[in-house]
Amino acid sequence: MSPTTSQRPLYALWDESIILNTIRYLGSFVGLISNFFLIFLVFYSKSLRKSQYTWYMILLSFADILIAFGHFIRTTYMINASSKGILLYSRLICVWINTPMGMGFTATRIAVLAIAADRCYMVINPLKYKWKANLKLILIVFTIQIISIAADTFTKVYGGDNITPITMCSMGAASAPMSSWFGQFYSNSCLALLFCEIFKFLIL
User: Fold this and answer.
1) How many CB atoms are closer than 10 A to CB 102?
2) How far, in Å, are 14, 48, 86 from residue 2 at the CA level?
3) What are the residues whose beta carbons fall under 8 Å from the beta carbon of 200, sequence distance 6 or more?
């Protein structure tokens, strides 16, 4: 039995509101345009292409594009569902609808860690710091991003309840139980590595 509008939680109604979805659309367009423009600048400028830091920013832009694209997909789906009066959602569909955003957030942490390590090393050892792009290192960071994305997506999809519908089409509501364990481990690991980088900077 589908719940009526008055029976639904306030956060679910707000999630489907025109105001919030309009803001999401605007944010998506701004995110896509700005990040694609940044990538264009890097490939257009020969000096920017030579910088290691710039390529880390490209990896961060890659993650931001996934988030913006994911917001666009989710917003479009929510508007379509609301227009058809859909109040209950399939968990599996919602997982895949929200997956691009999840991929972006996962990739963002790796890119931020790479940028933090690069900046710390530049400050700690300015004479030894090599600003020129190291393709091998960039590919390693990108590979870690892809592996992390694959692992995160797997834990969100595998082992979830695909029978019981959910009232809010969000990744938090749709994710499988395993994802919370992986998410905590992944987030804490990234945070620990970031603190290690900062601590190394402080003691040297």
Assistant:
1) 21
2) 18, 55, 9
3) 120, 124
- Say if residue 164 is exposed, middle or buried (CB neighbours under 10 Å; 0-12, 13-18, 19+): exposed
Residue appearing with tokens 């995110």: 31
Distance from C-alpha of 180 to C-alpha of 12, rounded to nearest angstrom:
21
End-to-end CA distance of the chain: 63
Q: Which of 192, 162, 196 is nearest to 176 (CA)?
A: 162
Is residue 176 within 8 A of residue 102, CB to CB? The reply is: no
- Which regions in the chain score pLDDT beneath 70? 1-15, 197-204
Q: How many CB atoms lie within 10 A of CB 31?
A: 21
Domains of the chain from N-terminus onward: 11-201 (1.20.1070.10)
Helix 52-83 with 91-124: angle, nearest 10 deg: 160
pLDDT of residue 136: 86
Q: DSSP for 42-84, please give it.
A: HHH-HHHHTBHHHHHHHHHHHHHHHHHHHHHHHHHHHHHHHHT
pLDDT digits (tens, 9 = 90+) for 52-80: 888 999 999 999 999 999 989 988 988 88
